[in-house]
């Protein structure tokens, strides 16, 4: 009996000292924001114009899926975009970034898009930083509000919203200039 108890205690001692058995098998842990170098949270307002050009020799938005059904709202049409973002409504004003991603007609009853975009900034302290927008855009509403769901670099852990207001739209060519006001909290 003593030998058996001695064997059990020895085995338990080896198991407890073995680092592979004492490590947590958890895949997560809590961190303080300071651990990642985050300081005080900031609120930033960005203002720019989004140039969506569908009909031209050099379009910035192209349809990549057109459904086989006829729909007054274009339901099911998917566009891939790489739209310039400028400081003024004039396309020749200062380029501050690009809206890259896609939008799709997601409503049978109104012209409403599912927007999946990254605002990729090219200017100043935001150069190389991005904000990700994912939301519903009822394009004939005067002001549309869409969530900002994340970001990178300067905008890590970003959250907020974007307000879009149509500046101009040509219903024949479908080319549009949209004013954006974006409000984001980030570190």
From TrEMBL:
<comment type="similarity">
    <text>Belongs to the plant dirigent protein family.</text>
</comment>
<keyword id="KW-0964">Secreted</keyword>
<dbReference type="GO" id="GO:0048046">
    <property type="term" value="C:apoplast"/>
</dbReference>
<feature type="signal peptide">
    <location>
        <begin position="1"/>
        <end position="24"/>
    </location>
</feature>
<keyword id="KW-0732">Signal</keyword>
<keyword id="KW-0052">Apoplast</keyword>
<dbReference type="InterPro" id="IPR044859">
    <property type="entry name" value="Allene_oxi_cyc_Dirigent"/>
</dbReference>
<dbReference type="InterPro" id="IPR004265">
    <property type="entry name" value="Dirigent"/>
</dbReference>
<comment type="function">
    <text>Dirigent proteins impart stereoselectivity on the phenoxy radical-coupling reaction, yielding optically active lignans from two molecules of coniferyl alcohol in the biosynthesis of lignans, flavonolignans, and alkaloids and thus plays a central role in plant secondary metabolism.</text>
</comment>
<comment type="subunit">
    <text>Homodimer.</text>
</comment>
<dbReference type="GO" id="GO:0009699">
    <property type="term" value="P:phenylpropanoid biosynthetic process"/>
</dbReference>
<dbReference type="Pfam" id="PF03018">
    <property type="entry name" value="Dirigent"/>
</dbReference>
<protein>
    <recommendedName>
        <fullName>Dirigent protein</fullName>
    </recommendedName>
</protein>
